[in-house]
Amino acid sequence: MRERSVVPGLPALVFAALTGTMAMMAFVAVVGPVVRLLGLAEWHAGLSVTAAGVLWMLSARRWGTLSDRIGRKRVLLIALAAYVVIYVVMAVFVDAALARPPALWLSVVVLVGTRALVGLFYAAVPPTAAAMVADGAAPGQRAAAMAKLGSANALGMVIGPAAAGWIAFHQLSLTLYVAALLPLLSLAVIAWRLPADAPVAATAPTGPRQRLGWTDARLRLPILAVFAAMVSVTIAQVTVGFFAIDRLQLSPTDGAQAAGLALTAVGVGLILAQVLVMKLGGVSPRRWIAIGALISAMGFAAVALVDARWELLLAYAAAAFGMGFVFPSFQALAADSVQAHEQGAAAGTVASVQGLGMVIGPMLGTLLYQWRPSAPYVLVGALLLVLSIVAMRHRVAVTA
Q1: pLDDT tens-digit readout, 135-160
Q2: In angstroms, rounded to a whole number, what is the distance separating the alpha carbons of residues 377 and 44?
Q3: Interacting residues of 335 by C-beta distance below 8 A, sequence separation 6+
Q4: Which residue, 56, 241, 258, 373, is most buried by CB atoms nearer than 10 A?
Q5: Residues 239, 373, 375, CA angle at the centre, nearest 5°?
């Protein structure tokens, strides 16, 4: 099995996933200092992230369906071009605002608005890339190819904040200019290396078309998997800093360092797991979801019991290792469950649920944390355990 022969342009898609994630995470790394320097409140930063998640949720399925109608490459070029323009506008505004702060309302509108539009247009990239993999790879081979995209995303999650922090140490606004170059590089690589493709909607059978949506029976397990995974990951991201300070009795500075190390361990765990998925191409996506959700459930639940930094890092690494099995597998399972002319719509539907998880997870996690610090991790462990059981039962029912 050679993914390069069955998925033309896969390296270009992997590069776009890497640089796109790095640019997204670079903003997350600097939004706190930018908000403070402009005199804004912390909730303004949260609003910008939530707005991006809402637009992602509302647009991902439409992007996927559009790629079925007009072609994958064309959608990627449109979305990445808009992504570049918006990121440059955001970088120029922040640079000017730091030199001469404008009215607070203007800063809020521009920061929230540009970040929301970044979410709107970047929402086209994951479902379109996943649909292109599904177009080229045969059923049973898709999880390994999806894992390449997942590894690139995980690597971007590790490199993006680290690089942004180093650049911001020298000049804060320079971070956003450099980040704006990343989607520009993606745009150039996609235009140069990704082969042109014909719209697949033309191959659809004639007659009335059934709209693919969240309630489609074929996508129930992939939708449950992506929702549980994204809620779990975002809860873990938003609470780890508070947990490190409160449970481990650390100073804010040491707590931020411990949180950063824990998120680095997450990136490493994701990459290792997805490399394993690439190597073991014969394992079905349903089995990967069942195994990964169980491992991740134990890892996240163990966080509620930690009393030392190394225990926190180990628990997060274990949880991420399990997630590394789940993420490429729900994409592959969705692709295996639908017909060729529905691949973009299926990938977009799954991505829209991913956006829903990005919105719900942080709010739910912080509310539960205020009640009891261990509560978010217990909930995540239980949610993933349910996913593992459902995946195992689903596999038995299908193969029976």
Answers
A1: 887 777 777 777 788 778 777 877 77
A2: 26
A3: 130, 131, 133, 134, 139, 142, 146, 343, 346, 347
A4: 56
A5: 95
